[in-house]
Amino acid sequence: MNKQTYRSVLILASAAVSLGAAGYAGTAAAQADTAADRTAGEKIDDGTLTARVKLALTGDERTKARQIDVETSRGEVQLNGFVDTPDAKSAATSVAQKVDGVVKVSNNLQIRSDRTTGEVVDDATINSKVRAALIGDERTKAHQIEVDTNDGVVNLGGFVDTAASKSAAAQIAGKVAGVTKVNNELEVRGHN
Q1: In CATH, what number does 117-188 get?
Q2: Architecture of the domain made up of 3-111
Q3: Residues 42-98: pLDDT tens digits?
Q4: How many CB atoms neighbour CB 31 within 10 A?
Q5: What is the chain written as a DSSP string?
């Protein structure tokens, strides 16, 4: 990894930790996660763990970290998105599992098909429409849901509060024009 990339990753990780610390200090956002019953400390721990996994992915030549969305809840890491090869998918799991503090890794990565520029633009449009539909429906909290689209296939990832929210997200995404399939990899947060 070159010095510029390393510096950028360190800045990103520092920002994530700073934002987590701001939440710990008592912001409304830090106190609003009622359904998951997570403490501010757990949120900071998850934010820090997410940043450490992203840093590890960035530092590994087998993975393109920009292709991988990382979500964390109580030490459980979820990898979402589309990667270029099966080796990249496997490497992402291996890298994430080695990060100290990771309890479990769910690899929801899909292998990207070769696409034209027009198809990439179409996928970006579908992605935006799915996000807008999720925002517009009161059954879902769109900020909890990662949306990635490739060749009309929509992957939903992240951690939601209820099974009803998980089901609603899949239904909403499936109704968006251009969506050919929905992979619902959302996980319902446990109440420990």
Answers
A1: 3.30.1340.30
A2: 2-Layer Sandwich (3.30)
A3: 667 888 999 999 999 999 999 988 889 999 998 999 999 889 899 999 999 999 999
A4: 10
A5: --HHHHHHHHHHHHHHHHHHHHHHTT-HHHH--TTTT--HHHHHHHHHHHHHHHHHHHT-TT--GGGEEEEEETTEEEEEEEES-HHHHHHHHHHHHTSTT--EEEE--EEPPP--HHHHHHHHHHHHHHHHHHHT-TT--GGGEEEEEETTEEEEEEEES-HHHHHHHHHHHHTSTT--EEEE--EEPP--
